[in-house]
């Protein structure tokens, strides 16, 4: 069966996010006040699997093997049909 | 004695390293396309700088998952020398040849300029021709060169004297002002391997290996490697 995994890779708590800081400055220059701003990267992956659990496990392996760097990243996997 | 320089799609310092090893240092050196794999024994393998796979996903991430890196890991596990320079350092860290990672600079822009480095240990095959504490001048050229590692890893690196280089000022002071990319503890060269036989560094020693380029401080990394291999061949302890 086809499943779509939404994988969100973001920086671990406390990690410097230089691009977010630059974006926050740019927003401030436009007059927008923000308390905090962080960035994340989202992957949408369609894959075939036996069931939701199997699809989630496969997407998790993708995170561990390539998509995330455990030194700096955390990841979240959501799977829908 | 024979060196290999591994070329990925996007490597752009491969020929510079090859020139330094073969023409400047006079050692046999092969350029090895990554898909051809490591097909013979090498004394040292260099992963050069560049933009493998366009730095897609993260600098070094995709190159680190190619089969040739398995062969390079085995080469390193056998105690033989691996030098990762710039993108090669990012690939080396992504492959866990050294702990930690190199990520986006604190100011997220490309920096290309000469910097001062303090040699933190002369007890490696790569730094044996320097004196600990010596200040050398080698250029950097990167956007994702900020070294990051968990606090515990940093403690281990310091305790085991596995920090090779830190950014410093001309007097050798390691200060925030002398840290161009925001690296943890100004670290920009890390030693890995059971026999201290891996070095991953962001600065480009091949760009500072001839006086005509403004500095030949980087050449001693290559000559140190060569002397270590000679010592090993002559039975004078480990490379």
Automatic annotation (TrEMBL), chain A:
Q: Which gene encodes it?
A: purS
Give the subcellular location.
Cytoplasm
Q: Which pathway does it take part in?
A: Purine metabolism; IMP biosynthesis via de novo pathway; 5-amino-1-(5-phospho-D-ribosyl)imidazole from N(2)-formyl-N(1)-(5-phospho-D-ribosyl)glycinamide: step 1/2
PANTHER family per UniProt = PHOSPHORIBOSYLFORMYLGLYCINAMIDINE SYNTHASE SUBUNIT PURS (PTHR34696)
InterPro entries (alphabetical): PurS (IPR003850), PurS-like_sf (IPR036604)
List the catalytic activities from the record.
Answer: N(2)-formyl-N(1)-(5-phospho-beta-D-ribosyl)glycinamide + L-glutamine + ATP + H2O = 2-formamido-N(1)-(5-O-phospho-beta-D-ribosyl)acetamidine + L-glutamate + ADP + phosphate + H(+)
Family per similarity comment = Belongs to the PurS family.
EC numbers on record = 6.3.5.3
Tagged with keyword Transport: no
Q: Which GO terms describe its cellular component?
A: cytoplasm
According to its UniProt entry, the function of this protein is described as:
Part of the phosphoribosylformylglycinamidine synthase complex involved in the purines biosynthetic pathway. Catalyzes the ATP-dependent conversion of formylglycinamide ribonucleotide (FGAR) and glutamine to yield formylglycinamidine ribonucleotide (FGAM) and glutamate. The FGAM synthase complex is composed of three subunits. PurQ produces an ammonia molecule by converting glutamine to glutamate. PurL transfers the ammonia molecule to FGAR to form FGAM in an ATP-dependent manner.
Please give the biological process terms from Gene Ontology that the record holds: 'de novo' IMP biosynthetic process
**Which NCBIfam families does this UniProt record tie to the protein?**
phosphoribosylformylglycinamidine synthase subunit PurS, PRK05974.1
Q: What is this protein called?
A: Phosphoribosylformylglycinamidine synthase subunit PurS
Automatic annotation (TrEMBL), chain B:
Q: Which Gene3D superfamilies match?
A: 3.40.50.880
Q: Which reaction does it catalyse?
A: N(2)-formyl-N(1)-(5-phospho-beta-D-ribosyl)glycinamide + L-glutamine + ATP + H2O = 2-formamido-N(1)-(5-O-phospho-beta-D-ribosyl)acetamidine + L-glutamate + ADP + phosphate + H(+); L-glutamine + H2O = L-glutamate + NH4(+)
Q: How does it assemble?
A: Part of the FGAM synthase complex composed of 1 PurL, 1 PurQ and 2 PurS subunits.
Q: Does the keyword Lipid biosynthesis apply?
A: no
Query: Which InterPro entries is this protein grouped with?
Result: Class_I_gatase-like, PRibForGlyAmidine_synth_PurQ
- GO molecular function terms noted in the UniProt entry: ATP binding; glutaminase activity; phosphoribosylformylglycinamidine synthase activity
May I have one GO cellular component term?
Answer: cytoplasm
Record key words, sorted: ATP-binding, Cytoplasm, Glutamine amidotransferase, Hydrolase, Ligase, Nucleotide-binding, Purine biosynthesis
Quote the EC number: 6.3.5.3, 3.5.1.2
Q: Name one GO biological process term.
A: 'de novo' IMP biosynthetic process
| Annotated protein name in UniProt | Phosphoribosylformylglycinamidine synthase subunit PurQ
């Amino acid at each position: 069966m086809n499943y779509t995994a939404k994988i969100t890779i973001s920086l671990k708590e406390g990690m410097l996010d230089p691009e977010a800081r630059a974006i926050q400055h740019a927003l401030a220059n436009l007059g927008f006040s923000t308390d905090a701003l962080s960035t994340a990267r989202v992957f949408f992956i369609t894959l075939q699997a036996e069931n939701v659990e199997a699809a989630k496990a496969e997407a998790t392996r993708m995170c561990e093997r390539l998509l995330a760097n455990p030194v700096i990243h955390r990841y979240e996997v959501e799977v829908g049909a | 004695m024979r060196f290999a320089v591994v070329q990925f799609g996007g490597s752009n310092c491969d020929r510079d390293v090859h020139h330094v090893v073969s023409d400047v240092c006079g050692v046999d050196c092969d350029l090895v396309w990554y898909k051809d794999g490591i097909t013979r024994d090498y004394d040292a393998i260099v992963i050069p700088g560049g933009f493998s796979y366009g730095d897609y996903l993260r600098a070094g991430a995709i190159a680190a998952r190619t089969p040739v890196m398995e062969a390079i890991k085995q080469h390193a596990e056998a105690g033989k020398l691996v030098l990762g320079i710039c993108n090669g350092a990012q690939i080396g860290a992504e492959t866990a040849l050294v702990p930690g990672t190199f990520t986006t600079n604190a100011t997220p822009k490309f920096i290309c300029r000469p910097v001062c480095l303090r040699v933190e240990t002369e007890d490696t095959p790569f730094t044996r021709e320097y004196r600990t504490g010596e200040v050398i001048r080698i250029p950097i050229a990167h956007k994702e060169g900020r070294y990051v590692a968990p606090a515990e890893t940093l403690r281990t690196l310091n305790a085991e004297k596995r920090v090779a280089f830190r950014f410093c000022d001309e007097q050798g002071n390691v200060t925030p002002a002398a840290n161009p990319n925001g690296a943890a503890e100004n670290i920009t060269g890390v030693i890995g391997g059971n026999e201290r036989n891996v070095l991953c560094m962001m600065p480009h020693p091949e760009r500072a290996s001839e006086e005509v380029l403004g500095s030949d401080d980087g050449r001693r990394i290559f000559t140190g490697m060569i002397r270590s291999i000679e010592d090993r061949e002559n039975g004078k302890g480990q490379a």
